[in-house]
Amino acid sequence: MAKRDLISVLDMKDEWPDLVDLAIELKKERGNHNAPLKGKTLIMMFEKPSTRTRISFDVAITELGGHALYIDVSKMQMGHGETVEDTAKVMSRFVHGIMYRAYDYKMMDKIGEYATIPVISGLDNLEHPCQALADMVTIKEKKGSFRGKKLVYLGDGNNVCNSLLYSSAIMGLDMIACCPATRMPNAEIMLGAARIADANGSKIIASHDPMEACKDADILYTDTWISMGDDTPEDKAVKLFKMYQINSELLEIAKKDCIVMHCLPAHRGHEITAEVMDGPQSVVFDQAENRLHAQKAVLYALLK
Ligand code: CP
Ligand code: NVA
């Protein structure tokens, strides 16, 4: 059977709803897994820092009976002249799966092309699919269903926003990407997500007006204004994004039972106020925990 990757949400589009349910099942049976990935090794290659992705993948595969290896890409021969192609082929002889956090999606695609084992994105400049899967798990747990619910993403139209667009469209969740005109999500992804949503009876909408967008929202979501690898100066980012901050005035406009999400790491006082982040409507730490359960579902589906 051909190997499969999770580089874009679209790679597992058809199983996305089942993966959400599997993650919820695996969460319930935590501590009682019967080592389905016994003997499997995952290499985790990082070009950028990480707390959640690194730890949750390591714990996920360990609890499923397998083993993880961490490697800082700058310490590999790949950072010192060996080609990506050769690296991918060599790793395919040693381990059973690759989790890769890259600056450039082209590197991610190349690893995917040359590896003969599954490649799972731990984020690149275009997408963060494992984050989006964990987010869908969190929304299902907190809201019960997706249909007719409205998610408003505020701030930078980045990798997290792109994967959320695809995921929302697949799950039938209405999503508004509310971003400055110069920082809208990737146009191709937005269009692709809108097409999926159309076929699914849900809506993907662009907005530049937070006060309008947040009316009757069920979920407000934000991420850092300056992603890893983005060299926008802080003062410029603050000026550009400040009206998109999730604060109590904005939350007031949303539904009374609106939840607040953030993929973390958060910058209190920038994209979200401390009051909201630490307040009763915030689900950010449940969301972070769900990375573990969602990634178990992905590892099980791709490595078993
Ligand atoms: N949300 C997320 O991917 O966090 P890390 O950068 O800590 O992995
Ligand atoms: N958009 C952020 C997400 C971090 C988890 C970044 O790429 O830095």
Jot down its keywords.
binds norvaline; 2 domains; alpha/beta; globular; five-stranded parallel beta sheet; binds phosphoric acid mono(formamide)ester; 14% strand; 12 helices; Rossmann fold; 304 residues; single chain
Instruction: Give me the count of strands.
Output: 9
CATH first level of the largest domain: Alpha Beta
Number of helices: 12
Domains, number: 2
Distance between the termini: 12 Å
Query: What small molecules does the structure contain?
Result: phosphoric acid mono(formamide)ester, norvaline
Counting helices, strands and paired strands, the structural category is alpha/beta
> Mean pLDDT score, rounded?
98
Global Rg: 19 Å
Strands of the widest sheet, in order across it, are 7-6-5-8-9
- How much helicity do the residues have? 40-55%
Major sheet description: 5 strands, parallel
CATH architecture annotation of the largest domain? 3-Layer(aba) Sandwich
- Please report which band the strand proportion falls in: under 5%, 5-15%, 15-25%, 25-35%, 35-45% or over 45%: 5-15%
- In CATH terms, what is the fold-level topology of the largest domain? Rossmann fold
Spans where pLDDT lies below 50 across 5 or more residues: none
Give the SSE string.
Answer: HEHEHEHEHEHEHEHEHHEHH
Shape: globular
The CATH homologous superfamily of the largest domain is termed: Aspartate/ornithine carbamoyltransferase
Oligomer: single chain
